[in-house]
Design a protein that fits this description.
- It is a single chain.
- The protein has about 170 residues and is mainly alpha-helical.
- The chain is about 85% helix and about 0% strand.
- Helix 1 crosses helix 3 and helix 5 runs antiparallel to helix 6.
- The radius of gyration is 22 Å and the shape is elongated.
C-alpha cells in the first residue's frame, strides 16, 4: 500500500517537473528520473538546514533570492495583486529580520533554529499558505495602525537629528 502511494507521489512530482526544461534536460543526460533529483535536493536541503550546515546562508538565500526574483516578476507584470503580495512579504520579512537581529544571541541556542526559520520563510513565501498576509493582517497591521503617529514622529525626530549631525560634520571641514 505504501509503495503504491509513494509511486503516485513520484509520478505527480515527475509530472510537475516536466514543466521545467532544465529538469527534463537533466533527466535526459543522466537517465535518472526528475523526481529523484527533486527528492534528493529537498533531502539535502533539509539535512543541511536541520544540522545547521550553512543554515544561515541557506535561509538567507531562501528568504531573499526567490522573493526578490518574484518581486521583479510582479513589478514587470504590473499586477497589483502580485505587488501587494510581495510588498506584504517584504514588510513581514523586514520585521522578522529586525527581531532576529535583536535576539540573535538567544536564538543561536535554540536547537534546529535554522530549520524553524526555513519553515517560517516557506510559510511566508509559498502562495498555498499566504503566510505573510496572515501575519500582516493579524499582527503587524493592527500594531502599525495603532502606533503609526508615534512611529512617524520618531522618524521625523531621527531625520532632524541626522541632518543636524551631517550639517555639523560638513561645517567642520
Amino acid at each position: 500500500m505504501a509503495a503504491v502511494q509513494a509511486q503516485v507521489y513520484l509520478s505527480q512530482v515527475d509530472k510537475e517537473l516536466s514543466r521545467y526544461p532544465l529538469a527534463v534536460e537533466l533527466e535526459k543526460r543522466t537517465n535518472v528520473p526528475k523526481a529523484y533529483f527533486a527528492i534528493g535536493g529537498v533531502t539535502l536541503f533539509a539535512i543541511l538546514v536541520i544540522f545547521n550546515i550553512f543554515g544561515q546562508l541557506i535561509t538567507g538565500l531562501l528568504g531573499f533570492v526567490w522573493p526578490a526574483y518574484q518581486s521583479f516578476k510582479a513589478i514587470e507584470a504590473h499586477n497589483k495583486d502580485l505587488n501587494t503580495q510581495w510588498l506584504t512579504y517584504w514588510t513581514v520579512f523586514g520585521f522578522v529580520s529586525v527581531l532576529e537581529v535583536f535576539s540573535d544571541h538567544l536564538l543561536y541556542w535554540i536547537p534546529f533554529y535554522y530549520a524553524f526559520k526555513a519553515v517560517l520563510i516557506l510559510y511566508l513565501v509559498l502562495p498555498q499558505f499566504h503566510g505573510a498576509k496572515v501575519i500582516y493582517d493579524q499582527l503587524l497591521e493592527p500594531y502599525l495602525l495603532k502606533e503609526q503617529t508615534i512611529i512617524d514622529e520618531d522618524i521625523t525626530k531621527f531625520k532632524k537629528q541626522a541632518a543636524s549631525i551631517v550639517n555639523d560634520v560638513t561645517k567642520q571641514d
